[in-house]
Automatic annotation (TrEMBL):
Active site: 87
Function according to Swiss-Prot or TrEMBL: Transaldolase is important for the balance of metabolites in the pentose-phosphate pathway.
Family under the similarity heading: Belongs to the transaldolase family. Type 3B subfamily.
Organism: Hymenobacter aquaticus
Localisation per UniProt entry: Cytoplasm
CDD domains membership: Transaldolase_FSA
EC numbers: 2.2.1.2
Location (main, coarse): cytoplasm
Pfam (any one): TAL_FSA
Pathway: Carbohydrate degradation; pentose phosphate pathway; D-glyceraldehyde 3-phosphate and beta-D-fructose 6-phosphate from D-ribose 5-phosphate and D-xylulose 5-phosphate (non-oxidative stage): step 2/3
Span of the signal peptide: none
Name the record gives this protein: Probable transaldolase
GO biological process, one term: pentose-phosphate shunt
């Protein structure tokens, strides 16, 4: 399973790279705004910086909502760096744009997926990734992981090359369950990735090993 970090924070991205387990980055307009990145030139420069830090796919989302503008914006993003994946929302124009990008060999990530039907449509249009939002479905009383399972099963039934990128992954159990289901990718904050390190028995065991070593070597 690939690990993507869901942030536009360069320090967090660098920390995940340094850990040696990062396969890519996803961003969205909210995450860019959180870092205070505004204006086309600054946004483009920030994406470039992210691509220079990470060896892997970097999703950069279009702001446009109509087909022509999505295509213009997406092509500009794709020209920025070979790692850029154009992130497109699940709308009628978005599906048309995904088809267009797919025919031009530009990678896409179809975002804001909340149903299996939306994922199927994006796969048929040639999306490289589909992003079901696990946590946001949980927020409204649904089980986001059931959707991930449905999409994995459907893509497997037909051998679709589209990768299932579980997004809005909020905590370690989400990530582990995505791995059990067979999601191709999870994207999550740094805290979820570093959360995988933690177990109290590891801490206690290490403390005992070091204390025993010190006792006989001092
Ligand atoms: O990748 C989508 C993600 O940024 C949404 O996460 O936690 O805001 O639902 P969240």
């Amino acid at each position: 399973m690939k690990f993507f970090i869901d942030t536009a924070n360069l320090k967090d991205i660098q920390e995940a790279v340094d850990l040696g387990v990062l396969d890519g980055v996803t961003t969205n307009p909210s995450l860019m705004a959180k870092e205070g990145i505004k204006g086309v030139d600054n946004v483009m420069a920030h994406y470039k910086q992210i691509c220079d830090i990470v060896d892997g796919d970097v999703s950069a989302e279009v702001i446009a909502v109509d087909f022509e503008e999505m295509v213009r914006e997406g092509e500009m993003l794709a020209d920025l760096h070979p790692s850029i994946v154009v992130k497109v929302p699940m709308t009628r124009d978005g599906v048309k744009a995904i088809k267009h990008f797919s025919e031009k060999g530009i990678k896409t990530n179809c975002t804001l997926i909340f149903s299996a039907g939306q994922a199927l449509l994006a796969a048929k249009a040639g999306a490289t990734y589909v992003s079901p939002f696990v946590g946001r479905l949980d927020d409204i009383g649904h089980d986001g992981l059931v959707l991930v399972q449905q999409i994995v099963d459907i893509f497997s039934n037909y051998g679709y090359p589209t990768q299932v990128l579980a997004a809005s992954v909020r905590h370690v159990p989400h990530l582990i369950q995505c791995a059990e289901i067979g999601a191709d990718v999870v994207t999550c904050p740094l805290s979820v990735i570093t959360g995988l390190l933690k177990h109290p028995l590891t801490d206690n065991g290490l403390a005992t090993f070091l204390a025993d070593h010190k006792r006989v070597n001092s």
